[in-house]
Every structure is written in structure tokens, then in C-alpha cells.
Amino acid sequence: MSTFTGLNTMVRGVYINQMQLNTVGHNITNADTKGYSKQTVNPVATKADYTTSGLAIGTGVDAASITRARDIYADVQFRTETSKEGYYDMCAKNFDKVEAVFNDTNQSGIEDSLQEFYKAWLNLSTNASDSASRVAVIEKGKAFSDSLTNAGVQLRDQIKDMYDQMEIHVTEINQIMEDITSINGLIIAQEADGAYANDLRDQRDLLADNLSKYININVHEDDFGAYNITCGGITLVSSVDRLHLEFTKGVNSSQYGVDYGVIDYTINIAESKANFKPESGSIRAEFDAIDQCRHYVEDLANMAAFMLTTFNDQHKQGYDLTGNLTAAKDDSGNTIYDDDGKTISVPDTRNFYGETGVQYVYNYDEVNKYTYVTIRESSGIYRKDEYGDILKLTGVKILGALATNADFEETGGYRYVAAASAYDNNEDYTTIMTEEDMQEHLIDWAGRTADGTNAVYMSELFNMSYDNIVSAGRSNVYAVTRYTETQNTVTAIGALSLNAYYKSEMTKLSVAAQAMDTSVSEQALIMDQIQNWRDATSGVDWNEELADMIKFQKGFGACSRCLSTMDECLDRLVNNTGTVGR
Asked: Are 566 and 4 in contact (CB under 8 A)?
């Protein structure tokens, strides 16, 4: 009986060493397989066999299980940090694109066109009768407006691309969740008898890792070995069931208040129609990147609104080359006079940007926090939209309205540039807040073709702040203060000069982009640490595997040799002993 027990023991020894060698081979061949976890055979002594005298004889070894090396806490940390990495990477890429839109290093950006426009007005202030100087102002004005509108188009295209990318990512997320639920079902079936579906578990963990790039997730394994995955309190995967994300039908951005010239989309849970917006991951970064692009569109719109309102208001305080204030006309083309028989006030005359005979009015929506521009016709009535409401230009609509006056395109149109001031420069205008007050200080033209006073005032809008302009007390105070009674900010760009406003926003962009690049670098270091932590547990070490291979090979050989020896002993016992009288 003990002989047969010994044979069985050695058979088990051969079997277990063969199994361990197979596992080592499986580890080595999958050393470079992404997501693979090292597997280990867990041997356990088999039940002892008792003799008639009560002695326990060992019967060998068996495999209790084959398990994979996995650190659950490291997995949790990895997925948390992967979501952050996906967020930072996507935001950094968007900042790179935005910085490319506002790239002023090649002397062809907004800052360059802004400075060229300023220099043209400065030159006109000393060469007011020079037609070439007037043409230069018009052309530089076109270049500046074009730079703003082109930047707006690029940002709008960037928003569209971001939505297209988001839609693709939603499809990928749905596919990943579908694959996880399928593997959940396979794992439940394979582990029903107590075994471990290690390779399937690796595949599922890799899918969960990939999912964490897009959204922040929490993973919980139930009693049957299936994964339940939640995001922000919403259970997306529950064993073999899952929710579906859907990219909703787009809505024009103008319906949310500001017109960005794009179709806006949201992500919903298809089953409940509830809005889905993760806290981290590349999907959240795409939403935030779209908001960033919108912010810079609004910055451009604020600059354009400043040109349509304050800049135009200052232009209309001047005489053109022929000494005309270009009186406003009514809808029938008739000149409009006030009660004293004078033509309508200067602010209703020719604009540098936009149309002649209308007043562009700056407004700010305090509730929704955005700038909009209304248009007052020469008759005093505000222009209406297709629904009969007062027309409100926002976002790209403001940028679209920023075009040099079509009158400048006429033969000799350069003469309409208002370089000479129409107001008495000896007055103190710091307390003048109404158009009626301004009319009392109008002065005659008197052939002042070389007067560039208004050109000086125009140039000051580029680089002088609100406070400096007001403290000067000249007639250009009216242009920068006319909205103080009804708006919280004095102009569409606040109390800053045009140049200071642009540089301020670009500084904010530069600092934010640099901070995001720093976050990306720091997050990469964190990911390296966590990956090393993971690899230390789950990774396949060739040296360890080769050492195990030699150990198990020798064990296999030793058990085989012992089995052969016992077989020879048994053969001798059966064939050469036990025959009486031989």
C-alpha cells in the first residue's frame, strides 16, 4: 500500500512541476502583453494516507489555484491618476491650439495688426491732410478687424473639432463598457466551479484602465467576480448590464445666450435622458476646452464691441476732410434735424466700423454675464430681429459686424476719415455726460484740413487707460464714459486701453497654458511611479521566471527519477521475489 502511495506521490510531483513549468512559459510568452499580470501556481499538500498502525503518510501535492499577482490599491490609484492625466493632456493640447491662434511671434497676429493700426492713427495726427495717411488708416483698420474675425473663425472651428472628437470618444466609451459586460459574463461562467479566469480578468482590467482615460471611474467587484463601474454616483456597468451614453442632437449656441457660431452638444444617459458630465478624464477636458475657446471668442467680441461703440463714438466726434459731420438720415434718406434746426447729434453720424447713420450701443447682461451690442437706427428706433425683439449682437455676430465702413470704398472715400476734432479743446469735459452737453461745445470746421486732434484722441484709445483719458479732461472723455450710468464697466473692455486689454488676456492665456504644461509634467512623474508600483507586483521579471524554470525543471526531473526508481523496485518485487521453492 505504501509503495502505491509513493508512486501516486511522485506522479503528483511530476504533474505539479509540469503545471508550474507551463505557467512559467505562459508568463514568459506574455511578458510584453499589455495588461498581463504574472500568474503563480499555489501548491498545497494533499490529504495524508493512514496505515493500519495509525501513521500518516504524505500523498504528495496538488494545485490549490493559479492566481495572478495584482495590487488592488495600485489599480485604484492608477485609474484615478489616469483620469487626471487624460484631463491634463487634453487641456494642454487645447491650450497649444489656442496659443497658435493668438501667435504674435511672426508679426502677423492680432497684436501686430493692433500696433500697425495705432501707428497709422498716430501718423495721421501729424499728417491729417495727407490722403496716403488716411488710406493707411483705412487699410490698417481692415487688417485689424480681419485679424479679430479670423481668430474668431479659428476658435469656432476648434470648438467644432472638439465636439467631433467628443462624439468619437462617446462611441469608444460605449464599446468599452459593452466589452466589460461581456467579459463579466464569461468570468462568472468560468469561475462558477471555483477556478480563476485570470486572463479574462487581465483583459477586463485593461478595459477599465482605458475607460479611466475618458472618465473618472470607481470599480467594485461583486461576490460573483463581476465588475460594477460607477462615475459620479451613476452606475454605468452592473455585472452583465450597462447604461448607454448618447451624443444629443445639437442646439445652436445662440439659444444659450451668446452666439458662438457653432452647434452645441451634450452627453446624456440614454436610458434616463439625464445629463452626463464626468468630473475628470478627457471627456471633461473637452467640455472645459470648449468653454475656454468660448471665453476667448468673448474676448475677441469685447474688443470688437469696443471698436463698434467707443471707437466709433470717438470717430464721430471729428470732421472729415471736407468739413462734414455727415448728418444722419432717416429711413427715407432725409436729413434729421433737432428742435433748433440743427442736424442730429454727432454720435449718430458716420462710423469707422459698421454702417453709416446708426449708433452701436454697448450693453452688458448682468444675469448671464456677457456683452452684447444693440443698433439704434437714425430714427432713434432700435433695430429688431426676426421675432420683433431688439436685435442683440453677441459673440461672432459682433465680430461679423466689425467691418470698415463701406463709404471708405467709394472713390475718394479716404476723405471720410474724421481726423479733426469737432469740439472746443479748451473746455473741461470731465463732468459732461450727455449728448446735449456735448453739442454746446461744437466748433466750426473753418478749413482745418491739417487738424489731427481727433486722430490723436483716436490713437489714445489704443494705449491710454480710462482713468488717464478722464483725467485729461478733453472731449474724448465722452466716448469712454457714455455707458457708465447704465453699465458696470465703462466700456466693452472695462477701464483698460485696447492694447492693455489684449495683453492682459494673452498674459492670462500664457500663464494658464504654462501651468497646464507643468501639471502634465508632474502628472507624468506620478504615472511613472504608479506604473512602477504596479509592475513591481504584476509585471513579469525574466530573471525570476528563468530561475523558477530551472527550479521546476529540476523538481520535475527529480520526481521523474524517483518515480522510475520506485517503478524498478516494484518490478523487482513483482517479478523476482515471492515464488516458493524457486
From this structure: no
Give the CA count within 13 Å in the CB-facing half-sphere of 42: 10
CA–CA distance, 371 with 364 (Å, rounded to integer) = 5
Cα distances from 125 to residues 254, 335, 426, 432, 474, in angstroms, run 41, 30, 18, 25, 16
Cα(186)–Cα(201) distance, integer angstroms:
10
CA dist 391 and 492 (Å) reads: 18
Cell of residue 375, nine digits? 443698433
In angstroms, rounded to a whole number, what is the distance separating the alpha carbons of residues 523 and 517? Answer: 10
Q: Are 198 and 37 in contact (CB under 8 A)?
A: yes
CB–CB of 436/338 below 8 Å? no
Residue 176 to residue 195: CA distance in whole angstroms: 25
For residue 555, give the nearest of 31, 69, 61 by alpha carbon.
Answer: 61
Residue whose entry in the numeric block shows the C-alpha cell 487699410: 139
Beta strand pairing status for 39-45 and 61-68? antiparallel
Measured CA to CA, the distance from residue 128 to residue 124 in angstroms comes to 5
Bridge partners of 453, per DSSP, are none
Q: Which of 228, 258, 256, 253 is nearest to 240 (CA)?
A: 228
Bridge partners of 221?
A: 227
* Closest among 310, 299, 298 to 460, alpha carbons compared: 310
Q: Three-class SS of residue 192?
A: coil
Does the predicted model carry a pTM greater than 0.90? no
Mean pLDDT (10-residue bins), the chain, 582 residues? 64 87 92 92 86 76 89 94 96 94 84 96 94 96 96 95 96 97 95 89 96 96 94 94 93 87 94 94 96 95 95 91 63 50 51 91 88 87 90 95 94 92 86 77 86 94 91 88 67 90 94 96 95 91 88 85 79 70 49
Which among 448, 435, 414, 425 is positioned nearest to 481, based on CA atoms?
435
Helix 2-29 crosses helix 542-576 at what angle (to 10 degrees)? 160
**Secondary element (H or E) of residue 373:** strand 370-376
